Amino acid sequence: MLSYQHAYHAGNFADVLKHVVLVQVLTYLQKKDKPFCYLDTHAGAGRYRLTVGGVQKNKEYLGGIGKLWQRGDLPDAVASYADLIKQLNPRGHLSDYPGSPSIALRLSGNQDRLFLYELHPSEYRQLNDFFMEDKRCKAFHADGLKDSLGLLPPQERRGVILIDPSYEIKNDYQAVAEALKAMYKRFATGCYLLWCPVVERKRTRYLERALHSSGIGNIQLFELGIAPDSVEFGMTACCMFVVNPPYTLLAGMQNALPWLADVLGELGQGHYRIEQLSK
Ligand SMILES: C[S@@+](CC[C@H](N)C(=O)[O-])C[C@H]1O[C@@H](n2cnc3c(N)ncnc32)[C@H](O)[C@@H]1O
Description:
Order of helices and strands: HEEHHHEHEHEEHEHEEHE
Number of strands: 10
Strand order of the largest sheet: 5-4-1-6-7-9-8-10
CATH class: Alpha Beta
Distance between the termini: 38 Å
Structural class: alpha/beta
CATH architecture: 3-Layer(aba) Sandwich
Largest sheet: 8 strands, mixed
Strand content: 15-25%
Helix content: 25-40%
Shape: globular
CATH superfamily: Vaccinia Virus protein VP39
Bound molecules: S-adenosylmethionine
């Protein structure tokens, strides 16, 4: 039984890292006049209202997008992402936040195709209601880790696959590593973005080791933390693993991550890490 609802976390520091990377990758793909395919294995509801009751309780977005979207000193990679947020909130009041499917749709052309998987019934309903009108999108109420494999390789032979589980089940760390290996076997030239929290450092390390020894080439790791690792419950940092990154991504993140750690870190304890996990 899934209980996670992304609305409570939309726009927090983890979404900032994930969506800054996603915007960079999609913007790069858009530059070529050839269609691409976007596959979101864990799509969520697609778009979030930040002003509704439940979200207002914890206001996680205030520690993420809320801290930066109107600043004048944004590094380039963060500025492109913040521009999307400004387009969604033209009155200058932060009330809406795009999920990954909305970001992908905004950065897609007429020929591109989007495949969105979501298992939670009410999240799926919102996702489908929002995206069903657009012929480029297809939403599935299905398991994105298993059932999406049949879509690979896509006919476009160019694609971004975002794997963004909620890690509600401890086995998820193992499951994502296995799923990524299986996807890569079918579509080795795809660009894969895998998000992972740092809640217990040993689980993140497990995933790093599994990917390092997976045989998958060219994996970059980008980590953003707002506090030091802690044994108490809670996410202190998160990582994006990027397989086959565009060559522009590294420089963009080298510029953005120190700034993000500085601006989003709690009590000056922000940190970041960039590693080439495999060549
Ligand atoms: C972190 S949220 C996704 C957020 C979204 N990618 C974004 O960036 O806006 C994870 C979502 O995955 C869904 N989920 C969990 N396991 C799933 C599975 N095996 N297949 C598809 N969706 C799943 C959850 O219900 C939740 O809505």
